[in-house]
Amino acid sequence: MENKNHYRYENEMDTAVLWLKDTPPVRGSGAPRLRSWMVPALMAAVLLVLIVVLGVYNSKKSERLASTEGRVSNLTDTVQSQSVSLLHAQETIKELQQLQFSVQNQREQLAAVSDALKHLSVVESLVRSVADLRSSLNSLVNNGSAADRCGSPGWTRFGSSCYFFSRVTLSWNESKDWCEKQNAHLVIISTDGEWDFITKKSIPVWYWVGLSDGRTGKWEWVNHTPYTMEQRRWRPGQPDNWVVPVHGSEDCAHLYENGLLNDLHCYRQLRFICQRHDGHM
Q1: Angle at 45 between CA 42 and CA 49, to 5 degrees
Q2: What is the chain written as a DSSP string?
Q3: Which residues are listed as membrane-spanning (predicted)?
């Protein structure tokens, strides 16, 4: 039984082998070939996509890089500009500090000048007080003889005239009227001797004299005698005929504290000098 079965099995195996050998290959079966080129193609496609993506990415990255470089360049320019501005500001601060130091020095100098002027004012006041005391002393010493020679106290003789140096202050016109009431006139100074005598007694006080340009616009004495200009008798730059809207021009002359002539507005209150000749004593 086993031999029969074994024989049958061998026959079936032989028949199957023959059948396989005789069977021709089936046409149209391209699966292996399709697989052989499909995988590289797919890989090539993926690689191409990657290349495109990378190209786009690199392009955008380049644009961003260029933009960043532009911003960095702008920032660099801004920083440089700010640096220059800062340098200018520092120089300006230094100049301001120097100006502040200069202003402080000027203030200190002005303060020193102010103090000096205060002291000078005190000195001038003392000088005037001493001059007044000297004048009073001379009046007391010479009171009797002066009264005998000029006819009334307070008058001082020089040459053929007597002179009165006032203690009160009046305007030029008021001074003129006061002198005329004393049978005199505001002083007319004609000679060098008179100049020396009067200036020695007047310094350092301001005194009206009988000289004005208010009547004709030309300088003349109170007796209408024309005045011959002697610039050496005037302060430098005078007379300047300075005009003030309310009070007009400076039309009256007075002796300045140094004994030189100066023009002044006639309304000002000053001391004055009267002159009286022998024939009116």
Answers
A1: 140
A2: -HHHHHHHHHHHHHHHHHHHHHSPPPTT--HHHHHHHHHHHHHHHHHHHHHHHHHHHHHHHHHHHHHHHHHHHHHHHHHHHHHHHHHHHHHHHHHHHHHHHHHHHHHHHHHHHHHHHHHHHHHHHHHHHHHHHHHHHHHHHTHHHHHHHHSSTTEEEETTEEEEE-SS-B-HHHHHHHHHHTT-EE----SHHHHHHHHHHHTTS-EEEEEE-TTTSS-EETTSPBPPP-GGGB-TT-----EETTTEE--EEEE-TTS-EEEE-TTS-BEEEEEEEGGG-
A3: 37-57
Confidence of residue 12 (pLDDT cuts 50, 70, 90): low
Distance (Å, whole) CA 205 – CA 186: 16
Closest CA to 219 of 178, 253, 249: 253
Determine the Cα angle at 76 with ends 70 and 82, to 5°.
135
C-alpha distances out from residue 120 to 65, 125, 193, 260, Å: 81, 8, 31, 20
For the whole model, what pTM was predicted? 0.48
159 — alpha (psi -120 to 50), left (phi > 0) or beta? left
Tokens 């697989």, residue located = 35
Please tell me the distance from the alpha carbon of residue 255 to that of residue 262, in angstroms, as a whole number. Answer: 6
Q: Which tokens is 173 given?
A: 């016109």
pLDDT tens column, 137-193: 655 554 444 444 687 789 999 999 999 999 999 999 999 999 999 999 999 999 999
Token pair, residue 184, equals: 């005199």
